[in-house]
Amino acid sequence: MNLDGIVSAALNSSLGRTVAAKAGFPAATELRRGDALPGGPIVLATVEPTDSAHPDRLVADALGALGVEAQPAIVDTPDTRTTDAGGRQRPPAYPGRIGAVVVDATGADRVGQLEQVRAVLRPAIKALEPSGRVLIVAGDPATASEVETAAVRQALDGIMRSVGKELRAGATSNLVQLADGTTAAELAQVLRFGLSGRSAYVDGQPFVLAEGAHDQVTAEGRIVVVTGAARGIGAAIAHRFAADGARVVGVDVPIAGQALAQVANEVHGTALQLDITVPDAGERIARHVVERYGPDARIDVIVHCAGILRDKMLVNLDEQRWGAVLAVNLAAQLRINESLLEPDRPGGIADGARIVAIASTSGWAGNKGQTNYAASKAGVMGMVRALADRLTGRGIVVNGVAPGFIETDMTASIPVIDREIFRRSSSLLQGGRPVDVAEAIVFLADPATPMNGQVLRVCGQLIVGR
Amino acid sequence: MAELRNAVIVGSNRVPFGKVGGAYAAATNIDLLTAAIDGLVARFGLAGERLGEVGAGAVLKHSRDFNLTREAVLSSALSNTTPAYDVGQACATSLTAAVQLSNRIRVGQLDVAIAGGVDSASDSPVAVSDRLRKALIRLNAAKTPLDKAKTLATVRPADLAPEVPRAAERRTGLNMGQHQALTTAQWGITRQAQDELAAASHHNLAAAWDAGFFDDLVTPYLGLTRDQSLRPDTSVEKLAKLRPVFGDGPDASMTAGNSTPLSDGAATVLVAEEGWARARNLPVLARIVDAETAAVDYVLGGEGLLMAPVHATARLLARNGLALQDFDFYEIHEAFASTVLCALAAWESDDYCRDVLGLDAALGSIDRAKLNVHGSSLAAGHPFAATGARILGTLAKMLADKGPGSRGLISVCAAGGQGLVAIVEAC
Fold first, then answer.
1. Best to test chain A binding among B49, B216, B217 (most A CBs inside 10 Å)
2. Cβ–Cβ gap B220/A257 under 8 Å
3. Interchain pair B219, A278: CB under 8 A
4. pTM reported for the whole predicted model
């Protein structure tokens, strides 16, 4: 048994768990994954609008579209409290566990209304089932017409993040910030993801919605290119898209060919052995698409997942380690996008397509020993925003995903103690799985998802970040 | 007779070739062939599909692997309803399979097929002596314990020595290198010329790897990502220092450096009816125009063991109305550097072409710049049955890159004094 195994076994033994708990490390909960919605009832609480002439049923309609019969929320006010035998005030309690609480804060524009959010969350958090959900829906601070409205909407972000850190047993807290024209169907698409197990490792995250989502089109037969598909997150992405009926082109470096071939065969896709840093990488991807799927074939989704680590403290970092990371993680995908986005290129990126790039929480927060990696991943986030703005005319949507600590071969190379610290630093007290990242990417690649230019963290609320 | 259809080479895949006892020491022929098929399936998106037929074989083959190719198909990502058969023609095995399957496609019996070959010198079948084998058969038939004991008593200690497969000809008792040494001396091939050819093979193969030429021809296996015998930094000077291992006397010139190493590996080629390939938007690289097999009498007739392709080439050119110079590429399997050089010398010899091949004059010389331009067996290694498919897959890509109508000649010598040559043309 290696050191990793010993540490892991020790932490997971009954004595180890007791010691860890005493030391302030509670045990992690197995997360609810997949399409399943919460098991318990979903509670809807609505913040009363100051302007009573503003009836907004958007959130209720969205839940209705999901087939959810929302239950009324229990509200903590001095009137609803009881006094126990010891004379202490007790907040009102739900009769049993609840699966999720959805707070419709679309009508919140005054500081005083935030008390209503506290009043519904207090009993709800107490009753939340394992892997339950807190979802707050509000306006986008960036589009608020008044200063106080912007402040209140931003305050909700602070509430959401702090709640995320207080929740236990795999429950998560997220915020949906609406665009001006968000429809009930669009919101339902986001709520479905947020409530289901597909968002298991997304926590403390605002979903900033954009206008102009496309109608739902069938996922069947979409051509999806995934770089870095041979193993880890990339392989999980390939499998996840294939499960929806996509035709997957797996790309990875030639030396990873055996693993790539296995993934390609498992998903009934095709393998393209390609070093993405070669100058004609984009052309070779396009040629492969044409030579497998026909002269009129275009890429419906491209996922830039290929990435490498060459960690060193900056004082020890030479040009090779610097250059390799920036070449693979950033320069290659800039060049590939440019090539594949040439209008009318056979085998290129289709109008209306979705581009998803993998960033990293290191790109938000920085990380010791990762100046090169953080540079590349922050660069990816810059690329996502800039590209999204420039491609709206062609209906092409660009988003990113920033994984935190995900259990893969790549992160298995991190020293064992650091790895355990990373796991336990997240609000969910554990590392994520490759499929958690894949789920977020499939969500962002869905034409019905009303997001553009966003980078979604899949980190179990590991660190601070947008 | 109905019009023949067009059979085309869609692409190919092989594993990097390993040294004997190297990266694939623990892999079986079935493992290696399965890996080569799986890489091909992944490259062209054929997972779960039923193909017309897979034909492949091995030279060194365990008797339990009588259905080697079918077993590999069952282990692969192809549909289990894909039929398969084993084929064998020594080192020409996979090229023979490609020719056969191409012809079956042309006459309409198949739409798509995989031709391949595999060999593992590391996992070679070790047999028992004939006396022990026969005793064991009797033991199996014996009814009573006493009969069994009597049968066992007939086995002598000497019978227990295993028989390791040797690259020796049964008719002459000479191994292939010893045979080639005779031919090398007959044609006066110099050590210098052999070493130059060997160095060029390594340098050409290394350059092709560096340029990414094999990105869509090879899928790594068991951690091996390049051909294990490849020595990019070898040179004529380094090769000149090696001791001869075949031939006798001061003129012995064949060394481990200018002879192919024992190797492990597998190679496959995807062949399809042209319309089948085009309907699936798959590449259409090249087609096998014609092929000819020859055999020589190396036992009593005085011809060199590995000279059969020279004869086959003369007949193939005549049938197709082509001159030896009408090719853009020549792929002559480097069993030994001197095998290639003897063939070139024979084609250039008026006397030989007239007296032995029955031609009016010499076939002439070829442009050496067109010979084995991305290296061949000396550098890549030579897992016997896999070599033909390696060469065919490589040449098909070279021809497609060169453009429609470009033409290549493949020559593969084989044990038993046989040889297979083929004309391949870009579509």
1. B216
2. yes
3. no
4. 0.88
